[in-house]
């Protein structure tokens, strides 16, 4: 490095770069991208029209307060406007939460493996990650997480369902955990995949937060609602936390396109339900087929499935790519595969079957 290069914060040294899911190669054999937990469906009815209308005015800054969207969310979830904050995707809101709570000397606790943005946003804030291994069933070990909380802990992420394993924590264990967390430590329930949950024992974070001032719920329009490219997510939290989120937000971060598309998506509930139902049915089909082939696959409550493949991880991902589907390998740990369109899922299952036979 030249002596004259600008001084950067030492906290940035060694930050892992966020790895987006690999795209399908243009013109190559791989046709389907099952590597980013995206929704395979086009925008919900009415969404494109709303977004196009908003696009006609993009010489103007967006409504910084996201008034229309906030009103819609407030009504939909029966929460006061002062308990809501929006951001550039829920990862943007998660980053704001870490910025608002944690700096050098502070600790952020989360399960591992979990969403790969957690270590990055923690380190960017200068705080220290405390990673608590998932249990043998690939589920958050909430007892170990509670035990990992010290007087330096400022924030705990609970990713429910967990990315990349799809596993969930249930009401009784979550309540027991929350009862153990000191009231001055913020617990963030990251519910990016909430709409795909079918296990009735999994609580709705928005019910949990109501009488717990140290709980914040994160939701997104990127997954079930299919607006990943527009970058809009939101948090539900009590006033002091929501107000801190408004302070740490990038001004005008959520575009008018995103705001209008999110409102139109919320008003397209029936179509949303139908699509999510179809994806959930595919999730069941894919998992059952994998189990029948002999793989171990934890039950997933999200729009993806997880296979802990160890040192076969990269070979498996390469075999899938040759078969026309891009999946998401994690080092020598395992592979996460998004549930996509039926044809894509079929290609994936065929690749998994061939791989299995060759073992
Ligand atoms: C658990 C979890 N939280 C948050 C996000 C961020 O989604 P977005 O920023 O698109 O809302 C993701 C995306 O993959 C995720 O898996």
UniProtKB/TrEMBL annotation:
UniProt modified residues of type N6-(pyridoxal phosphate)lysine: 223
Domain (Aminotransferase class I/classII large) ranges: 33-338
Cofactor: pyridoxal 5'-phosphate
SUPFAM superfamilies: PLP-dependent transferases
Single GO MF descriptor: aromatic-amino-acid transaminase activity
Enzyme class: transferase
This protein's UniProt keywords: Aminotransferase, Pyridoxal phosphate, Transferase
Chain positions covered by the region annotation Disordered: 12-31
Compositional bias annotation for Low complexity: 18-31
Assigned EC number: 2.6.1.57
Catalytic reaction equation(s): an aromatic L-alpha-amino acid + 2-oxoglutarate = an aromatic oxo-acid + L-glutamate
Listed GO biological process terms: L-histidine biosynthetic process
The family this protein is said to belong to: Belongs to the class-II pyridoxal-phosphate-dependent aminotransferase family.
Physiological role: Aminotransferase that catalyzes the conversion of aromatic amino acids and 2-oxoglutarate into corresponding aromatic oxo acids and L-glutamate.
Subunit structure: Homodimer.
PANTHER family recorded: HISTIDINOL-PHOSPHATE AMINOTRANSFERASE, HISTIDINOL-PHOSPHATE AMINOTRANSFERASE 2
Protein name (record): Aromatic amino acid aminotransferase
Species assigned in the record: Streptomyces palmae
Organismal lineage: Bacteria, Bacillati, Actinomycetota, Actinomycetes, Kitasatosporales
């Amino acid at each position: 490095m030249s002596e004259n290069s600008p001084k950067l914060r030492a906290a940035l040294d060694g930050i892992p770069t966020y790895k987006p899911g690999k795209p399908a190669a243009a013109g190559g054999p791989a046709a389907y991208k099952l590597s980013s937990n995206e929704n395979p469906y086009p925008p919900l009815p009415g969404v494109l029209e709303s977004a196009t209308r908003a696009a006609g005015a993009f010489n103007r800054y967006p409504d910084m307060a996201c008034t229309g969207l906030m009103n819609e969310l407030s009504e939909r979830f029966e929460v006061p406007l002062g308990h809501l904050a929006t951001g550039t995707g829920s990862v943007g809101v998660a980053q704001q939460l870490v910025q608002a709570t944690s700096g050098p000397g502070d600790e952020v606790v989360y399960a591992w493996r979990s969403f790969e943005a957690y270590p990055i946003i923690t380190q960017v804030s200068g705080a220290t990650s405390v990673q608590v291994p998932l249990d043998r069933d690939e589920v958050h070990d909430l007892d170990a997480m509670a035990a990992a909380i010290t007087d330096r802990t400022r924030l705990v992420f609970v990713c429910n369902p967990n990315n990349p394993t799809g596993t969930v924590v249930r009401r009784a264990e979550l309540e027991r955990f929350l009862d153990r967390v000191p009231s001055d430590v913020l617990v963030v329930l990251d519910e990016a995949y909430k709409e795909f949950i079918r296990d009735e024992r999994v609580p709705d974070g928005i019910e949990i937060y109501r009488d717990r001032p140290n709980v914040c719920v994160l939701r997104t329009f990127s997954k079930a609602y299919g607006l990943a490219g527009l970058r809009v997510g939101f948090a539900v939290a009590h006033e002091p936390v929501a107000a801190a989120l408004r302070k740490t937000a990038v001004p005008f971060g959520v575009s008018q396109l995103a705001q209008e598309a999110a409102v139109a998506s919320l008003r397209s509930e029936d179509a949303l339900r139908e699509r999510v139902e179809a994806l959930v049915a595919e999730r069941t089909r894919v998992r059952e087929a994998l189990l029948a082939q002999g793989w171990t696959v934890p039950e997933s409550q999200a729009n993806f499935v997880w296979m802990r493949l160890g040192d076969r991880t990269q070979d498996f991902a390469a075999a899938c790519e040759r078969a026309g589907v891009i999946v998401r390998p994690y080092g020598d740990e395992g592979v996460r595969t998004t549930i996509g369109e039926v044809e894509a899922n079929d290609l994936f299952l065929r690749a998994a079957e061939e791989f299995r036979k060759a073992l």
